[in-house]
What we know:
Blueprint: H1 4-10, E1 12-22, E2 29-36, E3 41-43, E4 46-48, H2 55-67, E5 69-84, E6 87-101, E7 111-115, H3 117-123, H4 127-139
Parallel strand pairs: 1-6
Antiparallel strand pairs: 1-2, 1-4, 2-3, 2-7, 5-6
Helix pairs in contact: 3-4
Amino acid sequence: MTDRNDTNDTTVQAAGCVLWRRSPVDGELEVCLVHRPKYDDWSHPKGKLKRDEDPLAGALREVEEETGYRAVPGAELPTVHYVANGRPKQVRYWAAEALEGVFTPNAEVDRILWLPPTAARARLTQPRDRTLVDALLNQLHLA
């Protein structure tokens, strides 16, 4: 039998958000995606948790670090499990509405895009991230 803490020691713990806003142009829903030059991929803002960091606090910290936007958290979305660099990784996600902010490119994230949900689903590099857009729409009762 495996102790839960043993699992946490071997599984990389991360958290992030499906960041959304209403378009300043037409009021339609937009989802924020981040481009990571290291991987040349498009994903939702996320990152590894610091030791003993609350997952929701970590998710909001990562959103602000990667996008420049503060956010108001909403419902928890499905947790995603996969293997990265030979280690199991668990990423907990929340829906989060963007507040004010300004994106500044950095070494980790060089671009962000605000896209309608259909375009966001198509732009995401990993298929596992696409289901999170659907989960967001369900939470916002737009699906």
